[in-house]
Design goal:
Layout (H helix, E strand, L loop, with lengths): L8 E7 L5 E6 L8 E9 L7 E2 L11 E4 L10 E8 L4 E2 L6 E2 L4 E2 L7 E5 L15 E6 L5 E7 L3 E5 L4 E11 L5 E3 L3 E6 L8 E7 L5 E6 L8 E7 L7 E7 L5 E4 L10 E7 L18 E5 L4 E5 L16 E10 L5 E6 L3 E4 L7 E10 L5 E3 L3 E4 L9 E10 L2 E8 L7 E7 L6 E7 L5 E6 L10 E7 L5 E4 L3 E2 L3 E5 L6 E6 L9 E10 L7 E6 L4 E5 L10 E9 L10 E3 L3 E3 L4 E3 L3 E2 L11 E3 L1 E11 L5 E5 L14 E11 L4 E10 L2
């Protein structure tokens, strides 16, 4: 009677370089010397039919067997062992079925890795084997290195060389000392991995119109070149323009100033030592700033294309914090005049007649990156307006109005002329607007003044065709006249006045007018030079000329006015009041010395003068309204007659005188 023999303890399957499979086991215990032989069974399927492949394995101490096959280089092979014993013979149960490790290489992926797949020899793991499957790589040839060790059965190896022979093999150690090995995977491997796309920090236009693009150094170490491409917009194709050698480069300047006239693209592509190129962000564009100046509103409308930030998977996507608008006037330093999140902006209050320049700078939300647009400049021209504007005169018309005369260039179109007035020369306010007539001369009567109390300042402005005020005219100041009486000399009048301002030709002198009964004929009583603003007048000789006496001073413009104009400007009229009086003769003799009777008038209003003479019976014998017409007594007998004189004095008061006159023959 024989005891049952245990099967051998199959521990390792080693695929030899020629494809044969070497099995290693631990013999069973055989205290009764029953062992006769080992049987080795093989199958290409775990659940398939196993075939006996062993011969001449008659020694109990045999621990290995090499199965001659080529199948192991194409797939896994399955093996188990049995022990034969006794004379029958009898056969033990089967050992653990082990699977040879088959190492398979998958196709290179587009991320530049070579994937390797392999299997364990037994599931679950044998208690005697190592926990980790080890993937080994031979490169360069003759040098083996461990790529990975773990329980996983899939590993991507990054190919970092352009083209090379490499060998791979998987091993699994057993505590008995044997090692299971996979097939030896040999091949020519190619690096098809594209380098990481450079992260573009910014694309910016320099002040000279050149374009600079900046980027961060990619993580990939195998980068030895950056290729630069250009796109001029308007449907143009992307074209290669330059290369930079070296991984450490981080910027490129495109020296052609195309960005001054259009939004352009300058792009960067990383190249590795194998010539593989990264992807390229062809969306990157410079900001192209365009201005539109409104000559009427004195404002600039600015517009530009949206700035596009670099977008790389796994890298923080920047967003626009704001666009800052910079402005320079007449080559002054650029100043920020506004900011916006939009791609347009209106800059108000842009002074006309200036050289104005702008650029826009974008700032990311984190305020760590900026990029600038092109600089665009223009002259802020105005609409056509008159080439000259001259206030000819400001002349007092009467006690409550002043006449203003303006001379304007009549070769240009405009909306009209604005008249302004001030009492201090510092706070001019508009008092009138005279619409465009096409003529050179304009006049305005200001009826809201009191020129008998003070001087006034005037100036004119033209509103151009946009309605904007243009440069103002010269300033004219009216003459303010004062007259003082001398108590000791009742007929002496002291005149003083303020200087007139505003004549382009300067002041030649002043005329002093004594106006009696509103008659300006022969009113000139004196003149002064331009520096003299006082005058003394004696009016005794004018006593009989009337009751209403006024003084007016006129400024006389000197020659040399650039417009060929000679003007006068009158002061306020100042009335002089003298006490009216009438001297009446009390007798006359038509045939004697005093042949007529005539009252002598001093400073009375002649228009309201009336004389009547009556006889003792009340009959009117003489009547006149003319203070120069005398009564000659014709047709009257010698007698005492009664006279009645009605008149109005210089103050406008009605007066009456009565008396007797003796007519002698």
């Amino acid at each position: 009677m024989f005891g049952q023999l245990n099967p051998p303890d199959l521990r390792c399957l080693e695929v030899l370089p020629n494809g044969d499979v070497k099995l290693t086991w631990i013999p069973p215990s055989d205290p009764g010397n029953q062992f006769t032989s080992y049987d080795v069974y093989f199958s290409i399927l775990r659940t398939g039919t196993f075939a006996l492949v062993s011969t001449n394995l008659n020694s109990l101490n045999t621990t290995t067997f090499v199965h001659t096959t080529t199948v192991s280089t194409a797939q896994s092979c399955y093996y188990y062992l049995r022990a034969n014993y006794g004379s029958a013979p009898n056969t033990s149960i089967s050992s653990d079925t082990l699977r040879s490790i088959f190492l398979n290489s998958l196709t290179n992926t587009n991320n530049g890795t070579q994937e390797f797949k392999y299997n364990a020899i037994h599931t679950p793991k044998l208690s005697s084997t190592s926990t980790n499957l080890v993937l080994n790589k031979e490169y360069p040839l003759g040098t083996w290195n461990i790529l990975t060790a773990g329980t996983g059965t899939l590993y991507p190896d990054t190919i970092t060389v352009c083209n090379a022979k490499m060998n791979y093999q998987v091993s699994l150690a057993d505590n008995s000392g044997c090692v299971s090995l996979s097939n030896l995977l040999m091949g020519d491997y190619v690096n098809i991995k594209k380098p990481e796309r450079p992260y573009v920090d910014s694309i910016s236009v320099l002040s000279n119109g050149q374009t600079v693009i900046g980027w961060q150094i990619p993580i990939d170490k195998d980068i030895n070149q950056y290729d630069i491409y250009y796109n001029g917009g308007n449907g143009a194709i992307n074209s290669y323009i330059d290369s930079l050698k070296g991984r450490e480069n981080t910027s490129y300047t495109y020296t052609t100033p195309t960005a001054n006239s259009i939004a352009i693209g300058v792009f960067v592509q990383a190249k590795d030592s194998c010539g593989n190129g990264s992807s390229v962000n062809y969306q990157i564009r410079t900001m192209f700033l365009q201005p539109e100046y409104d000559r009427c509103a004195y404002s600039t409308k600015l517009s530009w294309n949206k700035y596009i930030w670099s977008d790389i998977k796994g890298v923080f996507l920047e967003t626009t914090g704001k666009y800052k608008i910079y402005c320079s006037v007449n080559n002054s330093a650029f100043q920020v005049v506004g900011e916006t999140k939009d791609t347009n902006f209106v800059h108000k209050g842009v002074a006309p007649g200036k050289n104005v320049c702008y650029f826009v700078r974008v700032v990311n939300e984190r305020q760590t990156i900026t990029a600038s647009s092109n600089r665009t400049c223009f002259f802020s021209g105005q609409v056509d307006g008159p080439q000259y504007l001259y206030l000819k005169t400001a002349s007092v018309k009467n006690e409550s109005s002043i006449d203003v005369g303006v001379y304007v260039d009549d070769t240009r179109r405009y909306q009209g002329v604005t008249i302004q007035r001030s009492e201090t020369k510092n706070d001019f306010k508009e008092i009138a607007f005279i619409p465009f007539t096409g003529l050179a001369n304009y006049s305005y009567e200001d009826k809201t003044v009191k020129p008998h109390l003070r001087s006034y300042y005037y100036r004119a402005l033209v509103k151009d065709s946009c309605g904007n005020p243009r440069d103002s005219s010269n300033v004219a100041k009216t003459i303010f006249l004062k007259v003082h009486s001398d108590e000791a000399e009742i007929f002496s009048k002291q005149l003083s006045w303020s200087e007139y301002e505003g004549f382009n030709g300067g002041i030649a002198g002043y005329n002093v007018l004594r106006v009696i009964n509103d008659d300006f004929n022969n009113a000139l009583v004196g003149t002064t030079d331009a520096l003299t603003t006082t005058y003394t007048d004696n009016i005794e000789g004018a006593a009989s000329q009337g009751a209403k006496i006024e003084y007016v001073v006129q400024a006389v413009e000197g020659i040399g006015n650039i417009y060929g104009i000679l003007e006068l400007s009158s002061s306020n009229p100042v009335a002089v009041y003298m006490e009216g009086n009438i001297y009446v003769p009390n007798a006359f003799a038509p045939r004697g010395v005093n042949t007529t009777w005539l009252p002598i008038t001093h400073f009375i209003e002649k228009t309201d003068y009336h004389v009547s003479v009556f006889n003792r019976w009340g009959k009117k014998v003489f009547e006149t309204n003319d203070d120069t017409k005398a009564w000659d007594g014709s047709n009257c007998t010698p007698d005492v007659y009664v006279y009645l004189i009605d008149y109005k004095n210089a103050r406008g008061e009605y007066m009456q005188m009565k008396g007797n006159v003796l007519l002698l023959r």
